[in-house]
Design a protein that fits this description.
Elements lengths: L1 E6 L14 E2 L2 E2 L2 H8 L6 E6 L2 H9 L4 E4 L11 H12 L7 E6 L7 H13 L5 E7 L9 E3 L3 H8 L19 E3 L20 E10 L1 H5 L15 E5 L13 H11 L1
Parallel strand pairs: 1-4, 1-6, 4-5, 7-11
Antiparallel strand pairs: 2-3, 6-10, 7-10, 8-9
Length: about 260
């Protein structure tokens, strides 16, 4: 049996009400549910939230059952991995499960065809723990990332580890020097201002993941930060980059993706 689980939350610091936000004809949270509902390989869909309105919408779009999210899993500090494990344990009783599809209410960039392909790929790769959607974001490559350090001596030590970034004289005390490479060790002779100068930068865009049960059974053994993916992870590449939305200014990207693929 293949099940899909999705979770939503009423509160959001960055974009209040994002799961209910209307994208085209549907609220954002409806897209991942519809993708699972229309995938012939998915047997059951479960949804959890602390919001009654979200529960009602999930029922309207065809979920098998809904669960109210307990208070300790509905705060800003609650981890999504704990929500996934809790909901999985709620629904797994007396049910032989082959795969679990993990969805997010604020990640609408997924279709039933994509889910079907991901399931079939994982089924063929016996050694893999999971498969997840990935998007290429070279404009946010780690070699372009910076961080601000208030401690000047520490900032100088990190800066000095970057090739060709020697600091001396009065420049050492300039406040601009506090903006330093986030991961100085990644720089090499190929690094330049060209965003494509290094290997492509792929991220798990959170649109969907298909995982084997032991990934949730042994959640602490997975690779951070998304431990529900396990250790041996396959990537399902998106042609157009997707994202799970946390801020309203990201809406345009979602609309572009949905107009192109939905």
């Amino acid at each position: 049996m293949i099940i899909a689980i999705s979770a939503g939350r009423e509160g959001s610091k960055g974009f209040p009400g994002k799961n209910l936000y209307k994208l085209g004809a549907y609220p954002m949270m409806a897209y991942p549910i519809m993708a699972a509902y229309n995938c012939e390989l998915v047997d059951k869909i479960y949804f959890s939230s602390d919001c009654e309105e979200q529960i009602e919408i999930a029922i309207h779009y065809g979920v098998t059952a809904t669960y109210m999210r307990p208070d300790h899993l509905a705060s800003d500090s609650a981890l999504l991995e704990d929500v996934y494990v809790w909901l999985y344990n709620e629904v797994r009783r007396n049910m032989p499960i082959e795969f679990i599809i993990l969805l997010m209410s604020n990640a609408p960039c997924i279709t039933s065809k994509m889910l079907e392909e991901m399931i079939l790929i994982l089924r063929e790769n016996k050694e893999a723990d999971s498969i997840c959607t990935i998007s290429k974001y070279n404009m946010f490559h780690p070699n372009r990332s910076r961080k601000i350090i208030e401690d000047w001596e520490n900032a100088k030590r990190v800066s000095d580890r970057v090739p060709g970034n020697e600091v001396g004289g009065d420049l050492m005390q300039a406040s601009i020097r506090k903006l330093i490479p986030y991961i100085p060790e990644i720089f090499d002779d190929k690094t330049s201002c060209d965003r494509d100068c290094n290997e492509d930068n792929w991220i798990y865009d959170c649109s969907a993941a298909v995982v084997k049960p032991y990934c949730l059974d042994n959640i602490k053994e997975g690779i951070l930060p998304q431990r529900w993916l396990g250790k041996n992870i396959l990537g399902y590449r998106q042609e157009t980059p997707a994202v799970d939305i946390d801020y309203e200014w990201q809406v345009g990207q979602l609309k572009y993706w949905l107009e192109k693929y939905w």
